[in-house]
Amino acid sequence: MIVDDNDIDQMICKRVAGKCSFVDSVVSYLYAEEALEHLETQRPPVPDVILLDINMPRMDGFEFLEALADSSVDIQSTVVVMLTTSSDTKDRNRASQFKHVKGYLTKPLSKESLEDMLESIDS
Prior knowledge:
This protein is α/β, with parallel strands linked by helices. The protein has helices at 7-18, 32-41, 61-70, 89-96, 111-122, and strands at 2-3, 28-29, 49-52, 79-84, 101-106. It has a single domain (2-87, 98-108), classed as Response regulator (Rossmann fold, 3-Layer(aba) Sandwich), CATH 3.40.50. A five-stranded parallel β-sheet has the order 2-1-3-4-5, sandwiched between helices. The longest helix has 12 residues, at 7-18. The relative contact order is 0.18.
């Protein structure tokens, strides 16, 4: 799942994910509250990985994580990777406070960075 308010970033993520052999399908949302609604109403299955932008209108990535933690969605097996333009240490530290956030990547996403991140999580 991709949650990012930028169409171009979503297109890049979809292309990169499509080049990875371990990706079966991708769903994407421009707004975090739409992704949250999807997770609350279309379960199971939940996505294996959520690529989540931080800076979005209406509900940012951190608000999404807080709302997800307060919801009834079972994301025990879901890995969240923050995918953002922010290299701010405060954002990185804040992201690490959420137990499902297992990675932090800066844009643009590359096949190598995604594969490296997911391999490090699996090991």
